[in-house]
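Appendix B: a complete holo record

For completeness, this appendix reproduces one full record from the ligand-bound portion of the collection. The bound molecule is phosphoribosyl ATP. The inputs are the chain sequence and the ligand SMILES; the output is the full three-dimensional arrangement of the complex, encoded as structure tokens. No fields have been trimmed.
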Amino acid sequence: MSDVLTELAAILEQRKQASPESSYVASLHNRGLNKILEKVGEEAVETILAARDVQSGGDSQTLVSETADLWFHSLVMLSHLDISHEQVLEELRKRFNISGLAEKAARSKQ
Ligand SMILES: N=c1c2ncn([C@@H]3O[C@H](COP(=O)(O)OP(=O)(O)OP(=O)(O)O)[C@@H](O)[C@H]3O)c2ncn1[C@@H]1O[C@H](COP(=O)(O)O)[C@@H](O)[C@H]1O
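The structure of the chain with phosphoribosyl ATP bound, as generated:
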């Protein structure tokens, strides 16, 4: 999973130098942070609507696709601000380790 993010993040870095006419990612950088944030917001709303549809019996593939769009545009946002996706993965790892330790401590008290 994080391999895919790492490969995609490397492509996104390359696209910072690409021409906006030939690359969607370059066109987002060219239009600036506000446009990128607008896309993140749009994809977040579309993800929420797709999740509600799944709950009422709709197609889960639409939710998968919208979540991919949300993650993708979030990666473009981080890249635009020169923040590595690794920092986000590290934050998740840290929380995972903290909760793992907390669970162990709780078990040892039983
Ligand atoms: N993963 C993606 C990806 N996911 C979604 N999208 C694009 O995100 C856009 C979202 O759809 P919308 O209908 O909301 O967008 P739109 O109406 O075209 O855009 P706006 O006018 O609203 O800005 C679509 O144009 C999709 O093609 C992506 N575009 C590119 N990638 C990856 O990014 C890499 C670099 O792409 P380029 O910069 O195009 O070379 C590619 O190799 C892919 O791996």
